Amino acid sequence: MDNSEAFDNSERSGQTDRQRTQSGGWVCARDLVKSFRNGGVSIDVLKGVQLDLAIGESVAIVGASGIGKSTLLHILGTLDRPDSGTLLFKGEDVFQYDDVTLAQFRNQTIGFVFQFHHLLPEFSALENAMMPALISGLNKPEAAAAAEEILVRVGLQDRLHHRVGKLSGGEQQRVALARALVLKPAILLADEPTGNLDNSNSNQVHRLIMELNQELSMTLVVVTHNMELASYMSRCVTISAGQLQQQVK
Ligand SMILES: Nc1ncnc2c1ncn2[C@@H]1O[C@H](COP(=O)(O)OP(=O)(O)OP(=O)(O)O)[C@@H](O)[C@H]1O
Ligand SMILES: [Mg+2]
Q1: pLDDT tens across 89-141, in order?
Q2: Per-residue pLDDT tens over the stretch 153-166
């Protein structure tokens, strides 16, 4: 099946505010439960998480270290499966997909910026950013053109062919952002995108993320300890005791 069709840009940009509110369940997480076993001890991290995301909205997830923010974001990004619970995208339970279909869906729909950026240091900024485009089936020139466009957009036009291992922390995080956005995903999930940056670099990356949220009409979920970044979002939710508490502004 071609999941990309169900999440195309025209639908996103064509929504009115009223429709957005009504379609609160565009992404719907229900009763997500996740435990880990560590040395014979079980840690119950998520104990029935509910979350609805509307098209184009921005949500901050905050909470103490070790509480389960990355765990939740990985499940929302379909990088990990919950022990139980469902994740519906436009009514489709994506964890019912087999691994190949799920990987295709993820590639077409979701951009992910990791807590630790997971770039390939020996490869150039361009090569790193074009990776998802190559995986999606674009040929090399098409993938390079898409990667160059987004790298220019994040201000790295003079760093396209630099090895990522030689770039500064802020530049690396902008490459990670470009890689996440190269296919213009419907959803961007970012895990502490500026956790390791100084104030000035953080502010630049924050501004960029918010501008791209508007430009690409994409839904944005950001895990952060940075209350300034959280304050830019339309909504902030806190994880505590394995569940989400909503704070509507
Ligand atoms: N793969 C795993 N195996 C075992 N335990 C895990 C695994 N992943 C996470 N955990 C545990 O689950 C808990 C939640 O981890 P998680 O990374 O989601 O926290 P977090 O809220 O993102 O923390 P931080 O703010 O420090 O990044 C922690 O106690 C962690 O040790
Ligand atoms: Mg984390």
Answers
A1: 988 999 999 999 999 999 999 999 987 778 999 999 999 999 999 999 999 99
A2: 999 999 999 999 99
Q: What is the atom index within ligand 1 of the atom nearest the CA of 225?
A: 25
Does residue 45 have its Cβ closer than 6 Å to ligand 1?
yes
Give the closest residue (by CA) to ligand 1 atom 24: 65
Q: Is the pTM of this model over 0.85?
A: yes
At 113, list the tokens: 């910026």
Residues belonging to the chain: 249
Mean pLDDT for the stretch of residues 199-204? 84
The answer to whether 156 and 79 are in contact (CB under 8 A) is no
Q: How far is the CA of 152 from the centre of ligand 2 (A)?
A: 29
What pLDDT was estimated at residue 247?
Answer: 63
Q: Are 148 and 156 in contact (CB under 8 A)?
A: no
Instruction: Take atom 17 of ligand 1 and give the residue whose Cα is closest.
Output: 70
- Which one of 33, 65, 67, 112 would you pick to mutate in the ligand 1 pocket, going by the greatest count of ligand atoms within 8 A of its CB? 67
Residue 53 beta carbon below 6 angstroms from any ligand 1 atom: no
The verdict on the CB of residue 42 being under 6 Å from ligand 1 is no
Structure-derived torsion over alpha carbons of residues 209, 212, 214, 220, reported in degrees to the nearest 10: -50
